[in-house]
Design goal:
This protein is of the alpha+beta class. Helices cover about 35% and strands about 20% of the residues. Strands 1, 2, 3, 4, 5, 8, 13, 14, 15, 16 and 17 form an eleven-stranded mixed sheet that branches. A hairpin with a 3-residue loop joins strand 16 (about 380-390) and strand 17. The longest helix has 20 residues, at about 175-195. It is globular, with a radius of gyration of 20 Å. It starts with a strand and ends with a strand. About 55% of the residues are buried.
């Protein structure tokens, strides 16, 4: 069985909602990351067997298989296929898994796993009937959970309320949630100031879309640093109102931010990398995906982490760095309590609370940051996991090899 190795990983900086990336066509923004893979490695794109792209809101400009339109927008040969997948927030992490599995099975030699989400242009839930995300479950699935009372209502609830449920179940108070939100901001600010993200970010010209007219303008300059970071304080965070329920603990300050962005990871067999004269930077050692309770919805990273460590014959202490998607602070804090990870090894450069969460792009964004941080610090093993809508989670372990 072939080893699946990561040769290169890149991302755009994350653009805040209606910010510097809001005027980009999603396929053209994603194409910038494919072009960066090609430029950084000297890759001949004719050898790419497939482009697998995560995208959550496959509607409007992100519809009709954006992976294929991205290949064409990048100027890659028409012979390179592409497919778009949706495993909610973990879509592009799943793209990495599918890429690695195809290589390990011997059916592909070179695959690009990528992700895109332009949330300014294609709003979250715009692909749901009348924006009602719960309607997509249908009556039969909703009836399965009709006896589950949540905040005075019964059945399935949106993710925001689920994040409050997680905070309640693990008795995570507002002060602790806000402290984590502040920590994410401070870590991300320090990482940006120290240039830790510089190698992974592809500069992109600023392109703005007017919120009222839709007119696109190019004011000049390039986006080279994440623009979602906020200057805040414990006092400012404490003053925010609950975001989802009047008595809830989750606020805008301890939740991920709506953002625009794209990312891509070049995966190939170790043999093909040698043949092309390319240096493997990490081996994808283990992968798993789990289903979890769809009412609480966001607890999947806990069993996913336990399962992948068990299958790998490893312990939490063997992992040098963790990337746990900061959909909400309650997700990461509940996960830490259950798996016993050292907080000093978790999201060391901040996460989606500070950097933004461009849904379909976040999986390969986290992997890009994880790889570069392992290289910077000399760590050996990294573990990435993400909660996903509907109650699921992916987990991936990589080993740095160079």
């Amino acid at each position: 069985m072939s080893e699946a190795v990561i040769v290169e990983a890149v991302r755009t900086a994350t653009g805040r909602r209606h910010g510097s990336l809001s005027g980009w066509h999603p396929a053209e923004l994603a194409a910038r990351t494919l072009s960066a893979l090609q430029e950084r490695t000297g890759l001949d794109p004719t050898v790419v067997d497939d482009v697998i792209m995560g995208c959550v809101t496959q509607n409007g400009l992100q519809s009709t298989n954006i992976a294929r339109t991205t290949v064409l927008a990048a100027g890659w040969p028409e012979t390179v296929p592409g497919t778009t997948i949706d495993r909610q927030c973990g879509s592009s992490q799943q793209a990495i898994h599918f890429a690695a599995q195809a290589i390990m099975a011997g059916s592909c030699d070179v695959v690009v796993a990528a992700g895109i989400e332009c949330m300014s242009t294609v709003p979250m839930f715009s692909n749901a009937p009348d924006g009602d995300i719960l309607a997509v479950y249908g009556e039969v699935a909703r009836a399965r959970y009709a006896d589950r009372e949540v905040y005075g209502t019964c059945g399935l609830v949106p993710q925001g309320l689920a994040s409050d449920l997680v905070a309640e179940r693990w008795d995570i108070g507002r002060e602790e949630l806000d402290a984590y939100g502040l920590l994410s901001q401070r870590r991300a600010a320090a990482a940006r100031a120290e240039g830790r993200f510089d190698r992974e970010i592809v500069p992109v010209p600023r392109r703005l879309r007017d919120r009222e007219t839709g007119e696109v303008t190019e004011p000049g300059g390039t986006l080279t640093a994440d623009e979602c970071l906020r200057e805040t304080s414990a006092e400012a965070l404490a003053g925010l109102k609950p975001a989802f329920h009047p008595e809830g603990r989750i606020t805008a300050g301890n939740s991920s931010q709506i953002a625009d962005g794209a990312s891509a990871v070049l995966v190939m067999s170790a043999e093909k990398a040698r043949a092309l004269g390319l240096r493997p930077r990490a081996v994808i050692r283990h992968m798993t995906v789990v289903g979890s309770d769809p009412v609480e919805m966001l607890t999947g990273p806990i069993p996913a982490t336990r399962r992948i460590l068990d299958r790998a014959g490893m312990s939490v202490g063997d992992i040098d760095l963790f990337e746990v998607n900061e959909a909400f602070a309650s997700v990461v804090l509940a996960w830490q309590r259950e798996v016993g990870a050292d907080p000093a090894r978790v999201n060391v450069n901040g996460g989606a609370i500070a950097l933004g969460h461009p849904l379909g792009a976040s999986g390969t964004r986290l992997m890009t940051t994880l790889l570069h941080e392992l290289e910077r610090t000399g760590g050996r093993y990294g573990l990435q996991t993400m909660c996903e809508g509907g109650g699921m989670a992916n987990a991936t372990i990589i080993e740095r090899v160079s």
